[in-house]
Each structure stands twice: as C-alpha cells, then as structure tokens.
Amino acid sequence: MAHGGGRGRLAAATAAFTSNARNPALRRAQLSFLGAWTAEWAFTVGLGIVAYRDGGATAVGLVGLLRMVPSAVLTPLLSPLADRGRRERVLVLVSAVRGAATAAAAVVVGVGGPPQIVYALAVVSTVAATLFRPAHSALLPSLCHTGYELASANVVRGFLDSVATLAGPLLAAVLLQFSGVTVVFAVSAGASLWAAALLLGLRYDAPPRPSASTEIHLVREAVDGVRAVAGNRDLALIVGLAAAQTFTKGALTVLTVVVAIDLLGTGEPGVGTLTAAIGAGAVLGSLAASLLVGTRRLGAWFALGVVLWGLPVTLVGVVPQEAAALVLLACVGVGNALIDVGGFTLLARSAPDDVLARVFGVLESLVALAMGVGAIGAALLVEQIGVRPALVAVGLLCPLAAAASWRRLRRMDRSLGVRDRDIGLLRAVPMLSVLPLPAVEQLARRLEPLTVPAGDVVFEQGDTGDRYYLIESGRADVIGDGHAVAALGRGEGFGEIALLRSVRRTATVRAASELRLQVLSSDHFLPVVLGYTPSAREAETGVDTMLGRYSPEDEQPPGISR
Length: 562
Fold this sequence. Notes:
Elements: H1 2-22, H2 24-78, H3 81-84, H4 87-110, H5 115-139, H6 147-178, H7 181-198, H8 218-230, H9 233-263, H10 267-289, H11 298-308, H12 311-318, H13 322-350, H14 356-385, H15 387-395, H16 397-427, H17 430-433, H18 437-446, E1 448-452, E2 457-459, E3 467-473, E4 476-480, E5 483-488, E6 493-494, H19 496-501, E7 508-511, E8 515-521, H20 522-531, H21 533-549
Antiparallel strand pairs: 1-8, 2-7, 3-6, 3-8, 4-5, 4-7
Helix pairs in contact: 1-6, 2-5, 2-6, 2-7, 2-9, 2-14, 4-5, 4-7, 5-14, 6-7, 6-10, 6-13, 8-14, 9-10, 9-13, 9-14, 9-15, 9-16, 10-13, 11-13, 11-16, 12-13, 12-15, 14-15, 16-18, 20-21
Main location: membrane
InterPro entries: cNMP-bd_CS, cNMP-bd_dom, cNMP-bd_dom_sf, MFS, MFS_trans_sf, RmlC-like_jellyroll
Membrane topology: Multi-pass membrane protein
C-alpha cells in the first residue's frame, strides 16, 4: 500500500508539471514568471554590490528600504488595474518598465555615474516587480479549472521561482567573477523584456468584468482590497505570515552580504554563492513540494515553510561556518517552496476573483514594506549587536509566528476539503465542468444545503423558478404533465431550464428517497453560467437536448425544464 501510495504521489507530481506544459496559456505565463524573477534576483545581487561599495552594510540596508517603501505605497494603488481588464496586459507593461529601468542602470554603472541614479532606477524597477506578482497570481486561477490544477500551477511556479532564486544569483556571481555589475544589470534587463514578450497574445477565457467606468478611482478600489483582507481572518493570517517571512527575506539581503564578506571572508562572489544556496534548496524543495499537489494539508505545509524561513537563519549565527551556512540557507530555500505551494494556493482560493489582484496587491505591499523594514532592521542590528546575535534574533520571528498560527491554518485545511467536495459535485454537471476555477469557486461558496424527505415535492410544474438544485445524495423523479420523464441521482442537477429560458417550471420534481441537495439562487447561478462563453454554450446545448429528448417532433414539449 505504501509503495502504491508513493507511486501515486509521484505520478501526481509528474502530472502537475505536464499539465502546465500542455496548457499553452499556462506555459507562457509560467515561463514569463521565470524570466521576471531571474531578472529580479540577479539585479538584487548587483544592486547589493553597488550599495556595499558605496557605504557598507548600512548603505545596503538603506537601499533595501528605499526600494521597498515606494512599492509598499504604490502597489495596492496600482493593483486595481489588474482587476479592471485583462491581467496579462498589466504583466507586459510592468515587465517592459522593469527592463527599461534595469537597462538604464547598466548604462549608469558602465559610465561610472552616481550610484544615487542607480538607486532611483532600482525604485522604478522594484515598483514594477512588486506589481508583477499580484497580477500574475490573479491571472493563474483563470487559466485553471480545478483546485488541483491551481495547486499544480503554484507548484510549477514555485519551482520556477526556486530556479530563478538559484539561477539569478548564480548568474550574477559568475558575471561578477569575469566581468562586472554592468553586465549583470544588462542581462537582467534582457530577461525582463523576454518575460514581457512571452505574454503578448496570451489566449484564455477571461472572467466577465463589469463595464469599466470612464472615471478611475484607484484609491477607492485599493481600499476594497484592504477591506477584503481585513474582513477575512483567513486572508489576514496568510498575509501576516507572509509579511513575517518577507521581513526575514529583507534582512537576508543585508545579512548575506555581511556574512559573506565580513563573517566568512568569501568576498563579493560569496554573496552570490550564499544567495544561490537559498535557490538550490528552493529547487529541491519545489520538487518535493510537487508531491503535495493532491494533499489537503496545505495550511500545515505553509506553516512549516514559514518555520524554515527563520530557524536556519538562527543556526547560521550559532554555527558560522561556510559549509554549514550553505546547507542551512538551502533549508531556507526549501521553506520558500512550501510557502509558494501552500500560501499562494490558500490565498487564491480564499479571496473573491473580482478583487483578487487587489488582495495580492495588499500582500505585495506588505511584503515590500516588510522587506524594506527587514533590510534596515538587520543593518541596525548588525551595527548595534553584531552579525551573529543579529542572525539569531532575526531567525526567531518566523518560527514563533508559525506556532501561534497553527490551529487556524489547520481549520483552513478542513474548510477547503469541504469546498473541494462541493466543487467536485459542481464539476459533475457538463455546463459547469467547463468553468475556470474562480467561477466554480464562486458557485461553491454560494451553495446552500437543503434536505427533502422521501415523497415530498421539491417544486411543482407551473411554479416560478428561482433556484438551481444539485443532488448530493438520494434519488428524484421528474414528472411532466403527469408522466414520469426522468430519474435523477447523485451528481445530477435540475431546475436550470426555467432559469435559462425565463419560464415557469415545466415539470414536477419529487424525492424518490431522502434528498440531500445543494442549492444556488438564480442571482448566483445565472451570472456565472452565462458570463462565460463555454458554459453558456454548453447550457444551451443541454437545454435543447433535454427538451428534444422528451418531445415528439413538431409538438409542444411537455418539458423537463424542471
């Protein structure tokens, strides 16, 4: 049994990658992410070197804060743009801006210009970078059809994030060894522009949007995202833990420089090597995380990922040796992979699609602020208490936060398990099976349970139709004009024809045994089913088939419109 289970998990992990490779839209989106984040990590290493040459560890921390504060302010204000239209267009724009800013930084360094100009360009690049992830995170669910597929997409993206975390710093280390910061920035610019080019012409069924107002109220729309997070304890918890993790991440942008140059004596290339160790661990962790695609314990694994972002940092301070530091920072990378598959999947499935980019914008804003505070906080700690005590202090934050959040995360796991069951019930209906995940999640949240005793009528022929029904268990008979016309069981739905055709019920539905139903009101059912072309087409075809099946040619159908 264990062997078979292991083979099943391995097959599921393989399927996670192959499903993304077979889906052209997902493939383009994922490769774009790889290019964008490889550029970001390589640029971060190069910028750290520029700042350290300019003013030591304090300058590295100040530059880290300078980069992140504008992003923290602007990202939630700009993220509503990704909820107003097609999200890939936002990704193309921000990637192009990043490429241009990074290329300009390369020119400034190449001609020996003032580092302050490089810092200003870094702010522009970072604002664009922090807007990339919320738009990309909000785009992914629209390219998926099930929670499993979304988890797979986040596993693949986590793997590519890990590859970028390894490739970007490692590439920077090699380029620094043989050339200089100018080439590092130039390569980063090329990767950003490649990320933009991949998303041109992306094709998928975009969610229906309300008619765009001629007036743009970005502040008001941004506040809606803040309210969505503040009003949902699950969202607030995930965002809070992510902020703790990224505080540590920001601190590491300073600590890796100081540890490599001052504590371990490995020089400037050692900065890239230590950062690449995080990437190496993340790659291995992502491969392991792919085995978790089908698990219902994403909250628990997310908590473990948060722990691994802190505990190894503390141990680096306890055991300040190069080999130990490389292994421990690799463990941080493993934690990063677990956070990607757990945190982003939980967040995407807990927030409504119409504010999803704004919710991710709030996340990225706090992430940017936490990174900036972490960077300057680590610099101050190093100055005040030294490198080793600073490592110990910074590393304790995440394990303590994860321990305090454990029970809530486990409750989230149980809640998503129930919703997955409801989604499976919805997916059994042909017209609902073609919906993208955000749409079917929206329906699942709106389901209301109803029990009908055996022999009772659900509704009568001629009644006004205002609800759609799904059978969770039991059997139902459909009676039209006094004649039995159909028998329905688990996984089948009824009541849609009256809603779709705006007519009265054309049949009676009676419980042949006790019926456990899940019910959707017409206000929730119709906008989703008719809002997507594939589901609207499937619904119309299904209605015509059902009416024709029980109607003699050229006669008024008795109806199973139900």
